[in-house]
Amino acid sequence: MIQTVEQFVPVRLNAEKGGASEAKQFAVSGYPTIVFVDSSGRKVDTIVGFEPAPQFTADLHRILLVHGPLPGLEKQYRAHPTADEGIVLAKDYLQAGEPERAKPILTSLSGSSPMAELAPVYLSMGDLYFSKQDAEPAIGAYRKALRAGVSGSGAEQGRFNLSLCYLEEGKMAAGTYQLRVLLRRPDLSPALRRDAQRALRIAQERARVTSQP
Predict the structure, then answer these.
(1) Of 29, 42, 124, 211, which residue is most buried, by most CB within 10 angstroms?
(2) Residues 109 and 134 in one domain
């Protein structure tokens, strides 16, 4: 949700004080009201009343897809389908919470672009699927990112998330293997090392219980 919110520039106004003229301009009649305007100041959408986080995030995604930079990027990519344009568009789809729209672009680029350039995008895709608790596509995205040699703290967290996805899917051997690979890293952060050690203990205990007659 944080990545989605960061695509907007928030301006908070009190409709009964300094923002009275804006409230009248945009026909605000109840509170809270969020008015979305484009770069020219034209109102493009409105959210009235409080929304739970999942619904609010879904509405932000919808507004980004319809009124954000994506339509222009899509048109530009269709006219000039270069690798650079494709990577930018795929990243924006992910930021808008639309991994399924990013996936065919990355697939089409796999044969023409160095995987090292696509690895961070696949890592972001895995993180998005993981946040949606959608283990199977998260596994595929994380595996592509790791095979391409993605590095850094994000890669370590991605490998940990990959292990959890395997365990969630009941693939104990694959999950424990990823945890052991992760724990062999000497520069692993203390917090992530503790989490990985705990996950490995739980997985091993679960495996023992399953194997008992």
Answers:
(1) 124
(2) no
